Amino acid sequence: MKAAIKDTLKSYNLRQTDCREGILDVFMSKEHALAHADVEAQLTEQFDRVTVYRTLKTFVDKGLIHKVLDDEGGVKYALCKDNCHAGDHKHHHDHVHFKCTSCGLTTCLDHVVIPSFILPEGYKRVETNLLVQGICKECNL
Fold this sequence. Notes:
Elements: H1 2-11, H2 18-28, E1 34-35, H3 36-42, H4 49-62, E2 65-69, E3 75-79, E4 96-100, E5 106-109, E6 131-134
Parallel strand pairs: 4-6
Antiparallel strand pairs: 1-3, 2-3, 4-5
């Protein structure tokens, strides 16, 4: 896993720091979106809140992770599975996020496509977010 983390940081032209490696390790070990507080909790207070926030922002800016809006107005982050790059998150326009009302986890449904739609004249789409809520496959057993 350590080699994959280093290779990933290198492929996104990111300097290898303990914080970046730690945060990327957290994301690579989870299948669901994480809030800032979730990331902090996983790192057992190794890094201060501002450093974690700046690292998350850098990862979003570079296309390594993407923001996931949740139903409570907060922001979570998920690892990009596409080959996203700085300023070009390919998935913003083409996949759905699912929040389980039982366990509370939010996951990317990469193969569920957001239906196409036409905005009224004068409107320009910059980003599209679709959050579906229900019971995930783990809780639905």
